[in-house]
Amino acid sequence: MRVFGWTALAMAAFAANSVLNRMAVGAGWIDPLGFAAVRVVAGALMLALLLGVRGGVVWPGTRGRLAGVSGLVVYLVGFSVAYLALGAGIGALILFGAVQVTMFGGAVLSGEVVPGRRWLGAGLAFAGLVGLVAPGGAEVPVAGAVAMACAGIGWGIYSLAGRGASDALAATAWNFGLAVPVVVGVALIWGGMRAEAAGVWLAVLSGAVTSGLGYALWYTVLPGLGAARAAVAQLTVPVLAALGGAVVIGEAVGGRFWVASAVILSGVAIASAQSGLTRR
User: Fold this and answer.
1) How confident is the model at residue 136 (pLDDT cuts 50, 70, 90)?
2) Helix (H, G, I), strand (E, B) or coil at 86
3) pLDDT, tens only, 33-87
4) What is its main location (predicted)?
5) 30 by DSSP, 3-state: which?
6) Residue 14 to residue 35: CA distance in whole angstroms
7) Where are the alpha helices (H) located in the chain, listed in sequence order?
């Protein structure tokens, strides 16, 4: 039950990232790469502060570090760019659909035995995603969808890399710290770093709280979930993001979205009912 509660809190943080990013970038308060740069710097500083309070900086080892940093960079850049065109809920649906495919692939390749009921639940949840963006459904800009799909692949790789983290806080802090020069460099070269005060503060909130603290929490609960169950759990985020977008930003969501959301949540319930994954 404790793992469930912490996982739910992490999912809420992920959904908040979608809303904050959409608020700042969609309103033109900051350019997308500038948002990503401020976000990763704020997250790195918050995590470094937490490490200092805990007793000092600890190197968590090289295992999963390259994959973790690379996945985080791809996710941060793609995520911010996509929200130039996508609403919070639609963007989160595409993001975590790509996450699910990536993490299920990683589960199979790493030798995890995925029970049939979990495959059924994942398939049902993914069908809800397909139904939403199929012809005749929501209007989804192609460029934004591609950028968000890339972000989802990056996040899936980042999550897979975190399964073996023995020190979740240290691993997250180093991932953020090592990603800073890459993301900031990309923003300076291609983004121009346009920003108003409101956009900067939203990026700081996203980086320090819902990203830095949220991702450290996510790395903490990942070992108890396994790759497949973690992938399915994240499909609750689009529903939360859509609710947040509707309440905070006033984004409209149609009936088709809520039908798809009901299908997704049903799939999550089916897949999560199984006990933990075992290894071959």
Assistant:
1) low
2) coil
3) 999 999 999 999 998 988 888 877 777 777 778 988 999 999 999 989 988 888 7
4) membrane
5) strand
6) 16
7) 2-26, 32-54, 65-82, 88-109, 116-133, 142-162, 168-186, 197-205, 214-225, 227-233, 237-244, 255-272
Tell me how many domains the chain contains.
Answer: 1
Of 204, 258, 262, the C-alpha closest to 90 is 258
CA-CA distances (angstroms) from residue 17 to 23, 25, 127, 280?
A: 10, 12, 24, 36
Amino acid 52 reads G
Residue 278 has pLDDT above 50, yes or no: no
CA dihedral of 238, 242, 245, 251, whole degrees rounded to 10:
130
Q: What residues make up the domain containing 231? A: 2-279
Query: Are 264 and 238 contacting, i.e. CB atoms less than 8 angstroms apart?
Result: yes
C-alpha span between 176 and 69 (Å, rounded): 7
Mean pLDDT of the chain: 80
CA 8/CA 263 separation, integer angstroms: 19
CA angle 116, 239, 242 (to 5 degrees): 155
Q: Which residue has the tokens 């940093």?
A: 69
Q: How far is CA 276 from CA 45, 185, 245, in A?
A: 34, 41, 33
Rounded Cα distance, 67 and 74, in Å: 11
Q: How confident is the model at residue 280 (pLDDT cuts 50, 70, 90)?
A: very low
Q: What's the pLDDT score for residue 233?
A: 72
Residue given tokens 């809800």 in the structure block: 128
Q: How far apart are CA 114 and CA 271, in angstroms?
A: 10
Which of the listed ranges 13-17, 142-146, 203-207 does the model predict with the highest average pLDDT? 203-207
